[in-house]
């Protein structure tokens, strides 16, 4: 009798253990694994990251002459290759298998780089976040948003539907998107060229006196909020949309008589201050709104 | 014949049958024999590269940078007026790219759009025959788009949906611009937006092709 009880208990235990192990194996296989690698660099390094799967890329800076690459991914679903060649670090994340669960084919990166670093980052859907990095950067995304904070350099951003939020950015900025919008907040940019087909554009900040600022939208809204201390020449062109000028009292008639007259379009030309910077806004059928910040 | 002359012959004539003088020099010059062997090896390896090879992204970046550097894309650089030689150069480049078909459609489209942009930007009193007109660029893009159903995208539902949705958006905008230009053919602003939309469509199709290839 006792033997039978022991035997049954053993069988039950064994089956239970088997079930637990069986359940644990797939869980382990689909659990994201975090890894970290460090690369010593000199001078102005370059980081090239191609994330051909879903995932977020976060870049922050440090005073140390090293690049730290932290990554989180399911190892049997995503391959991550990292290679250092001199001061360049190449990172590639590619899918090893198709999966019905988009979270399985995902790689998230946390990079720590020297302040003076050039970045070339590309992802599909996740957010790209860069903070306090000074260097040229090219950032590409299909559907992921791009947030930049306190960065400077020649910044090129290209998305299909992802939006850009650029806060306290310096240098020059180029943005091109089909349906993504762009918000440029408190900038110290000496030049921008923003283009979106259906997204909205918001520029809220000062214009540097030698700067050239071009903003184009197909169908979206362009809104510019300037300060009373600004000095710029403004030209807006609108084919079928409207110009909503909420700052008429601050816009003097255009003081530069040599400028070409714009014909056949809904237009607005004027000068704020001495007209040192150049601001050109153009929309096919969207609204262009001009207003002065409080 | 000297070594430099032989190099010139190789550069000019390739690895075809060499002139007698070159063959004589080659027979007695180990250095040139080495160069010829290297060229032959490179040519042999090049033939083994599949026509549909997926060029790495840095190639696209380089091509784009080169096009920008030459002022073909969006750069407000004053270029000399187009000459027949310049047209020939584009045609030659397109002819070079043609065998790579799908993998290089994006490049060809960029060239077309870039040329279209330039045609729109630089007007001379006695203009050369335009390279691609807007309608030509539109037709080329349509042809590229027609190939898309044969391409399976990356299988990433969010990305695929975004790409396809944005293609619809671009097509709608192009149709709107084209319709406007039919009624107002001299409208420069509409034309600029149309060119810009073509360029965005070319980029988008290229991204969709990339997305499809990355899966396979």
Keywords:
heterodimer; A: 294 residues; mainly beta; Pectate Lyase C-like; 2 domains; 12-stranded mixed beta sheet; 1 helix; 10% helix; B: 216 residues; mainly alpha; 9 helices
Structural topology:
The complex is a heterodimer of chains A (294) and B (216).
Chain A (H helix, E strand, L loop, with lengths): L1 H29 L2 E8 L5 E6 L5 E6 L3 E8 L4 E8 L2 E8 L11 E8 L3 E6 L4 E4 L5 E5 L4 E4 L2 E8 L4 E4 L2 E8 L4 E4 L2 E9 L4 E4 L7 E6 L4 E5 L5 E7 L3 E4 L20 E7 L4 E7 L3 E6 L2
Parallel strand pairs in A: 2-6, 2-8, 3-7, 3-9, 8-10, 9-11, 10-12, 11-13, 12-14, 13-15, 14-16, 15-17, 16-18, 17-19, 18-23, 19-24, 20-23, 21-24
Antiparallel strand pairs in A: 1-4, 4-7, 5-6, 20-22
Chain B lengths: L2 H11 L6 H8 L2 H19 L8 H13 L14 H14 L3 H21 L12 H13 L10 H27 L4 H28 L1
Description:
The complex is a heterodimer of chains A (294) and B (216). Chain A is mainly beta and 294 residues long. Chain A has 2 domains: 31-129, 3 Solenoid (Pectate Lyase C-like); 145-294, no CATH class. Chain A is built from 1 helix and 24 strands. Chain A has a 12-stranded mixed beta sheet with strand order 1-4-7-3-9-11-13-15-17-19-24-21, with no helix packed on it. Chain B is an all-alpha fold and 216 residues long. Chain B is 71% helix and 0% strand. Chain B has helices spanning 3-13, 20-27, 30-48, 57-69, 84-97, 101-121, 134-146, 157-183, 188-215. In chain B, helix 7 runs parallel beside helix 9 (188-215). The termini of chain B are far apart. Mean pLDDT of chain B is 69; it is low at 75-104 and 120-131. Classes of the chains: A mainly beta (294), B mainly alpha (216). Chain A binds chain B through residues 50, 52-54, 94-95, 98, 102, 105, 122, 124-125, 138, 142-143, 158, 160-161, 176, 178-179, 195, 197-198, 216, 218-219, 237, 239, 264-265, 282, 284-285, and chain B through 57, 61, 154-159, 162-163, 165-166, 169-170, 173, 176-177, 180, 187, 189-190, 193, 196-197, 200, 203-204, 207, 211, 214-215.
């Amino acid at each position: 009798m006792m033997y039978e009880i022991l035997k049954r208990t053993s069988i039950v235990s064994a089956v239970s253990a088997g079930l637990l192990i069986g359940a644990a194996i797939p869980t382990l296989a689909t659990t994201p694994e975090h890894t970290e690698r460090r690369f010593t660099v000199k001078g102005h390094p370059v980081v090239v990251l191609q994330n051909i799967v879903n995932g977020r890329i976060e870049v922050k800076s440090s005073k140390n002459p090293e690049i730290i690459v932290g990554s989180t991914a399911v190892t049997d679903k995503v391959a991550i290759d990292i290679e250092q060649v001199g001061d360049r670090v190449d990172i590639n994340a590619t899918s090893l298998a198709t999966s019905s669960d988009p979270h399985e084919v995902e790689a998230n990166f946390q990079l720590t780089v020297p302040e003076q670093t050039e970045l070339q980052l590309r992802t599909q859907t996740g957010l790209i976040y860069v903070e306090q990095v000074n260097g040229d950067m090219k950032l590409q995304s299909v559907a992921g948003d791009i947030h930049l904070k306190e960065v400077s350099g020649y910044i090129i951003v290209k998305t299909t539907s992802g939006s850009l939020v650029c806060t306290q950015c310096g240098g020059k900025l180029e943005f091109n998107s089909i349906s993504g919008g762009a918000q440029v907040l408190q900038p110290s940019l000496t030049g921008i060229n923003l283009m979106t087909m259906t997204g909205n554009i918001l520029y809220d900040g000062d214009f540097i006196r030698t700067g050239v600022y071009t903003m184009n939208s197909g169908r979206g809204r362009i809104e510019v909020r300037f300060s009373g201390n600004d000095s710029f020449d403004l030209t807006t062109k609108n084919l079928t949309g409207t110009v909503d000028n909420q700052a008429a009292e601050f816009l003097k008639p255009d003081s530069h008589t040599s400028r070409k007259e714009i014909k056949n379009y809904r237009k607005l030309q004027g000068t704020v201050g001495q007209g040192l910077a150049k601001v050109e806004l153009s929309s096919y059928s969207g609204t262009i709104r001009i207003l002065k910040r409080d | 014949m000297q070594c430099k002359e032989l190099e010139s012959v190789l550069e000019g004539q390739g690895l075809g049958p060499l002139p007698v003088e070159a063959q004589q020099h080659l027979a007695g010059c180990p250095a040139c024999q080495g160069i010829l062997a290297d060229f032959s090896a490179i040519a042999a390896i090049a033939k083994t590269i599949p026509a549909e090879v997926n060029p790495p992204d840095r190639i696209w970046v380089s091509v784009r940078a080169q096009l920008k550097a030459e002022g073909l894309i969006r750069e407000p650089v004053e270029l000399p007026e187009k000459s027949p030689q310049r047209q020939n150069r584009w045609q030659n480049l397109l002819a070079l790219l043609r065998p790579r078909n799908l993998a290089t459609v994006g490049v060809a489209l960029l060239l077309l759009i870039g040329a279209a942009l330039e045609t729109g930007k630089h007007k001379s009193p006695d203009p050369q025959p335009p390279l691609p007109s807007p309608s030509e660029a539109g037709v080329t893009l349509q042809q590229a788009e027609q190939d898309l159903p044969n391409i399976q995208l990356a299988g990433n539902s969010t990305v695929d949906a975004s790409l396809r949705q944005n293609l619809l958006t671009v097509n709608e905008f192009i149709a709107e611009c084209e319709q406007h230009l039919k009624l107002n053919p001299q409208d420069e602003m509409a034309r600029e937006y149309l060119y810009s939309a073509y360029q965005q469509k070319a980029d988008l199709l290229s991204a969709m092709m990339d997305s499809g290839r990355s899966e396979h």
